[in-house]
UniProtKB/TrEMBL annotation:
The chain crosses the membrane at residues 45-71, 91-116, 152-178, 249-266. InterPro entries: CysZ/EI24. It is a multi-pass membrane protein. The keyword Transmembrane applies. GO terms for cellular component: endoplasmic reticulum; membrane. It comes from Rhynchospora pubera. Its main location: membrane. This is Etoposide-induced protein.
Amino acid sequence: MAKLLLQVKHHFLLWLAGFKEACCFHRALFFCASSKILLRRTGQCFLLNGLIFLGSLFILRSFVIPILSWILPDQSDHISTMAFYSYLRSFLIHIFYVLWFYPLYIFSLLLGFLWYSDIAKYSFEVIKEQETSKAQPFDNSKKNEAEKSEGVDGLAIGIGEQVYSGLLLTIFFFEVFIADSLPFIGKATSFFLLSWMNAYYCFESKWNYSGVSLNSRLDFFESNWAFFAGFGSPSVIPGLFFSRLISNGIIGFLYPLFVLTAAGTQEKDIIDSLSRLNDGVQGRKIPIFYLSQRISTMVLHLFPSGQKEN
């Protein structure tokens, strides 16, 4: 019983540490002050997701809908007129969403992926310039060099890992979507799954530029699931209070900050220090990506090179 309580305490402290690290937004100031490209990319994300996307939602709900309600009121002497006004008002609002919000949302997602990749890349360069790259995850710079293959083979392995990682996270996203629809436990389950997914996205580019292999990333992530659940939680919390569209805009607005805080987080040092404080307790591994890995492998086996990729 005492051992179980110690495990629970250890996982709670890991979750708390991850949550705290995700909220260290002051690191973003350091990175942006050290790189003009980082400052520009972060500003572009704020402009697109904050001013344009969330600003458009604010204008719609604060001005457009009230004006439509004034022009096409709910109250009328004739029931048929009220029904027509209601239908026309709803139609115009849906037109606004179809022609503006949904294309803007897709555009922000596609452009955001490119900008987030740049943010991770240049933040890693800042870390290298500040001579702090020796504290990269796993402290295994020698191992990273050994894991990297040379020439065309190394390039092929790198591309293969990126393809596999993208497929795995896509399938994991569908798992989150399915979990959200489950009765009773759906919301809680999707909260944890989405926290893990967002945390992995934040750290993936950092680990990629650090030369950490995909197997090492997944193993480290699943072995320290409580820390990464805590790190991803702040990005999921807006979804508890706002609609999906608004919460996605808020997450897109804040996501560059989470990428930058992840770049400046010494996750292995934090996890090791907590383990020492708890008499060397090690977190138990949870196969978070097991189902996604199985399905991804099955999908890749449908192609001629699938077996090689596996």
